Amino acid sequence: MSEWPVDLRGVTETVVATLGPNDRWNQAALGVHAPDSAGEPATARTFGDTRTRRNFHRRGEGYVQFVDDPVDFADAALSVLETGNPLLDGTTAWARVEVEQTGSEENEGTAVEHWALTPVESAVVREGPFAPNRGFYAVVEATIAVSRLDVDAYDTDELRERLRYFGDVVDAAGGARERAAMGRVREHADTDW
């Protein structure tokens, strides 16, 4: 067994790479929930019939990546991104994890599966300070809002208002990569906001 390469707090937004049946690595966003107490595993949930869920069932493992590039995060969160190897260029640390399904439920017509994540190998790729600006976090929040646009449980007008706000934050407080990432969010949203 290995340890996580970073301290997990709350829900850490990551990119997970899972190997598909085509021998390509599917890159997707995955919120990793810190354990409630020492000795417990970190957890995650998959929503719907995603490639990540299917690959978790098929392979029982994946690579959880901690990324500092908002474009990498936006593309993984909102598109089908497949790569030849599991690690993205923007990965600062990673953990190869074994996954075990610990439960499932139905939430307003969407299948939700719960997973325990146990790191078996990990590494820090780049040491040094990560100096995110407000725009970085606005991009993360925008990807979540976009992913809920067509979900009946959420108010579309409210989500579009959030997206406009996050766009304003990126314009005011983001750098070039955050602005590029928000452009990707707009492309992937395929709707006006």
Structural notes for this entry:
This protein is an alpha+beta fold. It folds into 2 domains: 11-124, Pnp Oxidase, Chain A; 134-189, Hypothetical membrane protein ta0354_69_121 (Methane Monooxygenase Hydroxylase, Chain G, domain 1, Up-down Bundle), CATH 1.20.58.290. Helix content is 33%, strand content 34%. It is built from 5 helices and 7 strands. It has helices at 51-59, 70-78, 134-147, 156-173, 176-189; strands at 11-19, 25-33, 42-47, 61-67, 81-83, 91-107, 110-124. The protein has a 7-stranded antiparallel beta sheet with strand order 3-7-6-4-1-2-5. Strand 1 and strand 2 (25-33) form a beta hairpin. Helix 2 runs parallel beside helix 5 (176-189) and helix 3 packs antiparallel against helix 4. The chain is globular, with a radius of gyration of 16 Å. The N and C termini lie far apart (46 Å).
Helix-strand blueprint:
Layout lengths: L10 E9 L5 E9 L8 E6 L3 H9 L1 E7 L2 H9 L2 E3 L7 E17 L2 E15 L9 H14 L8 H18 L2 H14 L4
Helix pairs in contact: 2-3, 2-5, 3-4, 3-5
Q: Which geometry do the CA atoms define? A: globular
The main sheet orders its strands as 3-7-6-4-1-2-5
| Secondary-structure arrangement, i.e. CATH architecture of the largest domain | Roll
Radius of gyration: 16 Å
Helical fraction: 25-40%
Structural class: alpha+beta
What's the tally of helices?
5
Give the domain tally. Answer: 2
Largest sheet geometry: 7 strands, antiparallel
Measured distance between first and last alpha carbons? 46 Å
CATH level-four homologous superfamily name of the largest domain = Electron Transport, Fmn-binding Protein, Chain A
Mean of residue pLDDT?
94
- Write down the secondary-structure element order: EEEHEHEEEHHH
Output the CATH class name of the largest domain: Mainly Beta
Point out poorly predicted stretches: none
